[in-house]
Amino acid sequence: MIFSDEWYRSEWRRLGFHYELDEVSRRWNINGSAKGLHSFVAAIREYAADSENDWVSCHLNLGPHEYLEIGTWSSAIIDDHWIAGPLSELLSLATFIEKWIGASKVGDCVSVRPFFSPDSRYDVWLRLAPDDFDPSSLDTSLATPFS
Q1: Would you kindly state where each structural domain of the chain is located, as residue ranges?
Q2: Closest to 116 measured CA to CA, from 99, 98, 96, 100
């Protein structure tokens, strides 16, 4: 497999949203259209609905770079490598995000930490983008200009 810029663009588009870790702000920035953020919700739901994932440290890597993980942990946590917790809390997180998407308009943002894991050192920051948002457009690692 050749990992070209076009491959990465294709994978971001297939994922439906873009994520990036901001170490300075200690947060995951997740940007997507309503459809794209619903894909994020679907990934969380699919992971959390599978009882095979009900063991501590189990995880699912997301996206072309695979550095964001959804995982199982004994309590809800957001840190520099994952969003994790008991499967029931991950399902609640998916419901929270889904309701937020339905009540939001383009440009709206929300912090997930207060709802999901108030004591975490990191946060997840969601931003609702327009319907024509291309998640690959935010990948600064791509060498060739966006097309």
Answers
A1: 20-135
A2: 96
